Amino acid sequence: MDIVVSAFMISGVLFMLIASIGIIKLPDFYIRTSVVTKASTIGLGLMMIGVGLYFNTPTAMFKVIAILVFILVTSPIAAHVIAKAASQIRVAFWKKTELSDYVKADGTPGNPKTVKRRYGRKSKSK
After folding, report:
1. Which residues of 89-98 are buried (b: 16+ CB within 10 A; e: fewer)?
2. What is the pTM of this model?
3. Contact, 4 vs 53, CB < 8 A?
4. CA 116 to chain CA centroid, nearest Å
5. Cα separation, 77 vs 36, whole angstroms
């Protein structure tokens, strides 16, 4: 059982390591957010499974399942909301990002590659 628990824990740590490298190496905010959310969710899930197997009690398993459900529900939603907010304030995309579908969508605030904005200041309306 110790080998199985160790395998889950090491796998989770490797996913978290990939997420931390992704923060440094990836080219723009949106790609970083996507990769970090996915890798950290999977990494935490694997580590929590390892914790549940290590303690091997019904109470621990219930807590692990509750944590997993909470993380699997909230993490992707939080990442989407953060990326949507970044889009609304026109955080720049990577120059190689294909934005043809983004620009055609209803309610799009404008092409983020061409629209300039001063962040942190309210724009004066005419």
Report:
1. ebeebeeeee
2. 0.72
3. yes
4. 26
5. 13
